[in-house]
Amino acid sequence: MTGFSINWLDLREAADRRAREDKLLEQAKHWLKTHNTQGTARTAVDLGAGTGSTLRAFSTSSSQAIDRESLSWRLVDQDAKLLTEARRRHGGSHRLETHELDLTDIAALPLKGAHLITASALFDLVSADFIETLVGALQSQSQQQPVGFYAALNYDGATRWTPAHPLDEAVLIAFNHDQQRDKGFGVALGPDAGPYMERVFNRSGFRVFTANSPWEMDGTDSNLVNALITGIGDAVAGDPALDVASLQDWIQFRKAHILTGTCIVGHTDLLALPNAI
Questions:
Q1: Position 94 in a domain
Q2: pLDDT tens across 114-154, in order?
Q3: Measured at the alpha carbon of residue 259, what is the angle toward residues 257 and 264, in degrees to the nearest 5?
Q4: Among 47, 110, 208, 253, which has the minimal tally of Cβ within 10 Å of its Cβ?
C-alpha cells in the first residue's frame, strides 16, 4: 500500500475532522455503546490506522461518548513508524493494541471478537476483491457476534475549485484515472469505492447508511491545499491528455490563489450494520 507520512496525516486531520458527517459518526458510536451481546469490553479494529485519527474522532465529547475503560482499540497498519506514533500519543490514555500487518491478508487481520471495524481514507485505495473478501468475513463473523463497519472519508471523484481554470476538468479526469491504479491492494476502486461498498454490504445482509463528507477548504487551509495541488500535479504528470506546459500553468495558477480561492474535495462516509440487530 502507498505509504503516508506523519506530516501529511497531521496536515489533513483538521479537514478530515470537519468533513466527517457527525450523525453517522454518532450512529457508529451508538452501535459500540449499545450492541454488545457478550457483555465484554467493546472492541474496535481500525484498519490503516496511521497515527490514530479514527480513535481521536471517536474520543471527542458527544452524547454518545464511550468510557475509554470499556473500549479497546486494535490499531492495524503496515507502517511501524505510524503505529509507534499512535502508541506515543494514545498508549497512556486509551486501551489499545497495535498490529503491524499486511492489510491485504484479510485472514490475518485481528477481527475476531470485534464489535466495530473502522477505517478512514482507506477504501478508495483498495480493490473490489478486497472489499468482497472483507465483507464476507464480517458477514460470517456476524453470525456469531454482530459486527458493524464504519468507513469515513472515501474519495468520490469530485473536486471543485474557485476561481476556475480551463484545465480543471482535464486535471480531475487524469487524477481520477490515477486513483484507480494499483495502490497495493490490486486495481483500486478509487472514486467508485463508496458505491461499491454500499452494494456489497446491502446484498450481504447489512443495513447501510451513507452521507457526504466533503473537504471544504479556503485560505485558512493553505498548507493542506498547497500540498494537495503538489500531490495532484505529481499524480497526473505524464498523463498523455495533459501537456507539460499546460499542467505547470494550472499548478502555478492554483498556488497563486491558495489564500483567496476555495477547494471542495468530495468524500462519502459509510456505516453498515447487521440486519439481524
A1: yes
A2: 999 999 999 999 999 999 999 999 999 998 889 999 999 99
A3: 75
A4: 110
